[in-house]
């Protein structure tokens, strides 16, 4: 079984989707056109998607953090510095991890809704026989 998509609720679909396009490089996909709500579908690669969906009066959970709810993504370690610069320039809060790991990672709180994302060295995702 593989991961298909995740859905992020927001009061501002365009601002949320644009943030992820400008920072993480996700691209828009055509949505099926049958959603009763405003939505943008983003391509995360490898057949995976993020659906950004309008929800009136949406509020993010107060439990968005390293030991609460967050979204974890793999990203190439050599590009961490440039990513951190883009995130900061777009108003994201960079957060140092609390728990030590044998691989590089960091967290950020996106500025539109307050969702927390963990960015993990992509080499961490490779099977040990491919490292």
What CATH architecture of the largest domain would you give?
A: Roll
Name the strands of the widest sheet in spatial order: 1-4-3-2
| SSE ordering | EHEEEEHEEE
Shape: globular
Rg is 15 Å
Mean pLDDT level: 93
Number of strands: 8
* CATH secondary-structure class of the largest domain: Alpha Beta
Largest sheet: 4 strands, mixed
The helix tally amounts to 2
Report on this model:
The protein is of the alpha/beta class. The protein folds into two domains: 1-59, 2,3-Dihydroxybiphenyl 1,2-Dioxygenase, domain 1, CATH 3.10.180.10; 60-131, 2,3-Dihydroxybiphenyl 1,2-Dioxygenase, domain 1, CATH 3.10.180.10. 17% of the residues lie in helices and 32% in strands. The strands form two sheets. It has a four-stranded mixed sheet with strand order 1-4-3-2, covered by helices on one side.
Short description:
With about 130 residues, this protein is α/β, with parallel strands linked by helices. Helices cover about 15% and strands about 30% of the residues. It folds into two domains: about 1-60, 2,3-Dihydroxybiphenyl 1,2-Dioxygenase, domain 1 (Roll); about 60-130, 2,3-Dihydroxybiphenyl 1,2-Dioxygenase, domain 1.
